[in-house]
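Appendix C reproduces, verbatim, an entry submitted by the partner laboratory led by Prof. M.T., so that reviewers can inspect both the input and the predicted structure.
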Amino acid sequence: MINLDQLLQAISRIKRGGTKYGKAPHKAILLLTLIELIDKGVVTDNHFRINSDLVGLFQENWRLLVSTSHQTDFTQPFYYMQSNKIAGNNFWEVITYNRAGLHAHVKSVETLSRLVEYAVLSNDVFASLLHVENRLIITNYILTYFFPETQSYYLAQKGSDESYYSSIQQLVLNDPEVKYKRIEILSEEDVFVLSHLFKRYIPQVYNDTCAVTGMQIRSTFNYNFVDACHIVPFSVSHDDKVTNGLALCPNVHRAFDRGLIAVNDNYQILVSKAIKDNLDHPYSFSQLEKRQLILPQHDQHYPSLENLAWHRREVFKR
């Protein structure tokens, strides 16, 4: 069992690549982010999945702490931290879906997320981080040791509504206040965070209910049974706000994407004449004609009429 002094000593010795801007800060940022996820109760089982929380908070911490010209890159420390040790043992392991291990640096976060199921800290390290006092000591140590010049700024800004991750979430949720903020979307990792927040929030604002059929399904395994559907495809709009989304059952999602159903300006469902189905069947698409779309509770989350009009014009088969 490692003690706190051993852990702090190992952190001070983490391998950092040398660059013309100084030693790379990536691993220190990742460690801070892992501690924060535990502190917030987001991670309780020592499974660190590549999702919007992990990548979004890494980006936020980077922006608050790194004042040099190093390029932000979540994938780099996620892979290379596997080479660091505490008391002679590795303290970070990446678990791939095929259990073959990750043996090369994958530079795309989207590709990495498709290969990796989760990463884990060693049992000793994770057990140590479950204690709030240890998390506080280690966090302060990392800030003082690696980021003495920006530590005060970090502590002043962290957790505010102006922080990067909070602002990104407000952007996806179409918060009225976000129009007064300047949010820079600079990298693939920013796009990844937006996309994964879209997939998270669309089912939430529609109460896990298909907006067309009214079918609501939840499970104790946190699986989504309704899809987050873009009204205007992201490849066209680059829009991941909830106002460009609908929560739809998979079969309805396919029909919407293929122009077999649409929504009018009164939020009523339109069914294409191209559909040929059994009118007597209880799940017949034809029975959906002029049915009222189920809308989110708050109008700021309503699907954009402009986007619905684009879908009717460009996709819907009348």
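DSSP finds 13 helices and ten strands in the chain. Additional entries are available on request from the coordinating office.
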